[in-house]
Amino acid sequence: MANPDMTHVYVGAARSGPGKRGGILRRAVGEDCWEPLTKGLPDVTDVQVITVHPTNPDVVYLGTHGGLYRSTDRGERWERLGLPDDAAQVWAITVHPRDARIIYAGTSPVGVSRSDDDGESWRVLPNAAQPERLKMSFACRVMRIAADPAQPDELYATLEVGGVMRSLDGGEHWDDCCASLLELAERPHLRSRIQSGSETEGMLDGHALCVSAARPGTVFLAVRMGLFQSADRGTSWRDMQVGRFSPLTYARDVRVSPHDDRVLYACLSPAARSEDGSLYRSQDLGETWTRVDRGIKAESTMMAVALHPRDPRQIHCVSRAGQVFSTHDGGATWAEHRLPEDVKDVYAVACG
Asked: What does the pLDDT look like over 17-29, one tens digit per residue?
């Protein structure tokens, strides 16, 4: 039984091949042992996202290839929540910043569902989709949903591979926010094509976004080509030029500190699958960046970062191949807690 007074770190992974496993694992801070959490989950579980309730760490939400799950005891047991599309994969889970009863789930096939009762019932939000601009080898998915803390009915979602869409009324109506991203994709250094027939692919390859209360209406976006910012609710975008500070610019995650609205964290790497990765911090809303994970060596792409909701000194980040790095002094020192050898395709990390 998990200790309710203890902080836990959760990591989610997908199967990367024969003999490998996905699922969710948990480690208590201060210990070095990873515990698989399986009760109530299918034998095979590919995990894309983990969200710890912002005020009640006993409640954890899990997005998988097989739907949405919830635990009310820190992962000891799981129950499946019934989304309207029972076959949908869940890639994004966001709790409303002012009313924690409201939860949004982003899916593949592309869609956003909303619950107003702690996940007991759900409805699909209308028109939460983007034009199909590219053909990829996988179905497009909603990778992250963010609400503006100052105007929490203003929602933003980024898609892999589909750019950004916006709702200004809690999800009832959605707008395409890609026109400016497509213009940026005409610049030679922002062109990228891996699977589709278009070099706009890189700018539409959305991984994460966030909004800070320090600057309402400003959205920070992580895509294949780097970090980008919109100061007008997603209407126009500018390159934040993170390459001035980092030799690695493939952006997988970007988050606002829960303790200082001017502080951002970003996971930067060479590519989706690579042998390097890093964690950067900005203390001025992205104007300048400094590497914060000094002293560690990521052996693969840095995929995600988790910021402790109550302790500003505690940060956890995870590499794709199964390294979990933790600091308890704001980045002055780091420790590595490697996952079991058969966990090799990590997508998510959370703590609480």
From this structure: 898 999 999 999 9
Place of tokens 């007991």: 120
Establish how many alpha carbons lie within 13 A of residue 94's alpha carbon, considering only the half-sphere containing its beta carbon.
Answer: 32
CA distance 3 to 152: 33
Record the pTM. 0.96
What CA–CA distance (Å, rounded) separates 83 from 126? 14
Give 189's Cβ-side CA count (13 Å radius): 6
Rounded distance between C-alpha atoms, residue 347 and residue 340, angstroms: 15
pLDDT value for 3: 66
Q: Does the structure show a pLDDT above 80 at 2?
A: no
Nearest one of 104, 134, 141 to 14, comparing CA atoms = 141
15 vs 47, 106, 152, 165, 210, CA distance in Å? 9, 21, 35, 30, 28
Residue 8: how many CB atoms within 10 A of its CB? 22
**Closest C-alpha to 304, from 330, 331, 323, 283:** 323
Written as one letter, the residue type at 178 is C
Closest CA to 234 of 282, 164, 292, 185: 164
Interatomic CA distance for residues 275 and 18, integer angstroms: 21
Q: Are strands 302-307 and 315-319 parallel, antiparallel or unpaired?
A: antiparallel
Cα angle value 129/134/137 (rounded, 5°) = 100
Give the whole-angstrom CA distance, residue 121 versus residue 136. 32
Residues ≥6 apart with Cβ < 8 Å to 319 = 277, 298, 299, 300, 301, 302, 303, 325, 346
3-state secondary structure of 268: strand
pLDDT digits (tens, 9 = 90+) for 126-150: 999 999 999 999 999 999 999 999 9
CA distance 209 to 147: 10
**pLDDT tens digits along 30-68:** 998 999 999 999 998 999 999 999 999 999 999 999 999
Cα→Cα distances 294→9, 43, 178, 207, 298, Å: 21, 38, 35, 24, 11
